[in-house]
């Protein structure tokens, strides 16, 4: 600016040679005459904006208002979700997702992008609805009225459809069972349920729980993720993040569980029927979900109904021990009072089944060689992990791929 000011001041003097000044200042003659013209007209010498006077391709103000309103209604949604949501509502000429992102950035509504992610986890998806459900509790919430709320969520692996979202007071099977019964009555039975290794569906010691025993009697396989690997339940973990971003973080005070239930129910409808899901190509979960053809039975089959005539049927004792051939084998206290079957697979080796599920094996030869007397742990079946699903098997099944049907 100082050089421009000097140029025009020298150029205005009497007898000044404009072209010679241009050569000395290192500018072209048209530029020099342009600055002289602006100076004589009283205009500023700074560069003028190159912004066009008109923008025929600019997004209409009404559409921009819709975008901003959608962002205020759903603060955790980005450009792609808002675009698909507006299209699903019948809006025409919705701008590109990148344009919507630019609008959000101009209005200061876009958070900073997340840092570089770590290793790329292996992704999976079951081929059809109800082949696998994922279930988990989210971290508890402190309630203003006293006590805690433990949000419980259950998703269908194929469609990401939320089957259950409840504000629980505890993380016990006594409270969980009626919730699962209601879900089974509404949506039918899945082939398998994936959960972690904590209560009420698992134990850190690997013993089967009362929850698992009940699910096995219904013909539902129970799969467990690897300990200390929450990414095994990646869809459930991602759902919890979405729940936190779109519901939990927007309310600073949760009064009681009724308050939580109302907000959970309202948002669950948005999640299943309105919110576009990027992993589904922008579709909503409800568009990919269908109820299961396996109906919830009025009464689960008893364990003894699964066993054959060659099985040795034993009742688990009060402390979770199985007494057989003078040796106590530890099964787990959740199995106390239940009947299990022992099927001979070798001269001194038996496999232990509960309903159609193989729990493990007892080996008397190995027990004697170890020098132990009177008590021995069960050689437990390795819990089936996510990538090693074991189909239900047992007497009366046509093939290993058959699933027990409930009449």
Automatic annotation (TrEMBL):
Residues 125-293 form the Integrase catalytic domain. Residues 378-391 have a biased composition (Basic and acidic residues). Residues 375-407 are annotated as: Disordered. InterPro entries: Homeodomain-like_sf, Integrase_cat-core, IS481-like_transpos, RNaseH-like_sf, RNaseH_sf. Gene3D superfamilies: Ribonuclease H-like superfamily/Ribonuclease H. It comes from the Bacteria. PANTHER family: TRANSPOSASE (PTHR35004:SF6), TRANSPOSASE RV3428C-RELATED (PTHR35004). This is IS481 family transposase. It comes from Luteolibacter soli.
